[in-house]
């Protein structure tokens, strides 16, 4: 006020107390202002003057406000020595809670990727084993046609059949393992995807 040589609640540029509050980052629900100017002998005289004014008294005694700032400065106003006094009363607004969006678990994603790699490797081994079994089955069928009456070749055929059956058991075991792991992996992927969708929706919300 002294710098711009005015005495009012609104500055020559149109600023009021709530504009200043916004500039300094004071989020408010209530802003009120008392001002006084003159040659006051004591601070008490300033307060007594406010208390004799209904509007100023209401601001001072308000049960709603929780904070107050005051300033008293002496300077020159229109060529005269003048004390300018200001009280600002405020009630801060409740802080706006920050958006809390939980991203999907990176640990779960790493576990999913590891299990997918394991299943992929197991699937490749299973394919190779299936090809071996098909070739051995064809070989066994050919030997069956030519081994009749030859004890030595029958023994070899029996050994091949035994090895084929053992390998078939290994194949079936691996196939069962893949079938068992598949639903577990699908469930983990579904869980991750749900969390990812929830996170995206949360981030996109106002």
Percentage of residues in DSSP E strands: 15-25%
Bin the helical content: 55-70%
Could you give the distance between the termini?
41 Å
Structural class: alpha+beta
By DSSP, the count of extended strands is 3
Radius of gyration of CA atoms, rounded to a whole number = 44 Å
Q: Uncertain spans, ≥5 residues at pLDDT below 50?
A: none
Strand order of the largest sheet: 1-3-2
Mean pLDDT: 89
Largest sheet: 3 strands, antiparallel
Task: List the helices and strands in order.
Answer: HEHHEEHH
Give the overall silhouette: rod-shaped
Q: If helices are DSSP runs of H or I spanning 4 or more residues, what is the number of helices?
A: 5
Topology, element by element:
Blueprint: H1 17-23, E1 28-38, H2 43-51, H3 54-61, E2 67-77, E3 80-92, H4 106-146, H5 151-204
Antiparallel strand pairs: 1-3, 2-3
Helix pairs in contact: 4-5
Question: What's the short story on this structure?
Answer:
The protein is of the alpha+beta class and 206 residues long.
Question: Would you write up a description of this structure?
Answer:
With 206 residues, the protein is α+β, with helices and mostly antiparallel strands. Helix content is 58%, strand content 17%. The protein contains five helices and three strands, in the order αβααββαα. The chain has helices spanning 17-23, 43-51, 54-61, 106-146, 151-204; strands at 28-38, 67-77, 80-92. It has a three-stranded antiparallel β-sheet, sandwiched between helices. A hairpin with a 2-residue loop joins β2 (67-77) and β3 (80-92). α4 runs antiparallel to α5. It starts with 16 loop residues before the first helix and ends with a helix. The mean pLDDT is 89.
């Amino acid at each position: 006020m002294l710098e711009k040589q005015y005495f009012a609640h609104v500055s020559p540029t149109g600023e009021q107390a709530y504009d200043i509050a916004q500039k300094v980052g004071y989020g408010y629900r209530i802003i009120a202002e008392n001002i006084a100017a003159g040659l006051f002998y004591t601070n008490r005289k300033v307060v007594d003057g406010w208390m004799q004014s209904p509007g100023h008294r209401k601001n001072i005694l308000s049960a709603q406000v929780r904070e107050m700032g005051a300033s008293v400065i002496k300077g020159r106003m229109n060529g005269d020595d003048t004390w300018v006094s200001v009280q600002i009363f405020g009630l801060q607004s409740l802080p706006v809670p920050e958006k809390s969006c939980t991203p999907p678990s990176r640990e779960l994603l790493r576990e999913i990727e590891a299990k997918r790699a394991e299943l992929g490797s197991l699937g490749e081994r299973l394919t190779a084993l299936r090809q071996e079994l098909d070739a051995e089955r064809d070989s066994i069928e050919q030997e069956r046609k030519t081994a009749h009456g030859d004890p030595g070749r029958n023994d070899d055929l029996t050994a091949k059949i035994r090895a084929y059956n053992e390998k078939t058991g290994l194949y079936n075991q691996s196939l069962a393992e893949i079938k068992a792991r598949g639903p577990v992996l699908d469930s983990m992927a579904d869980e991750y995807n749900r969390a990812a969708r929830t996170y995206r929706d949360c981030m996109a919300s106002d």
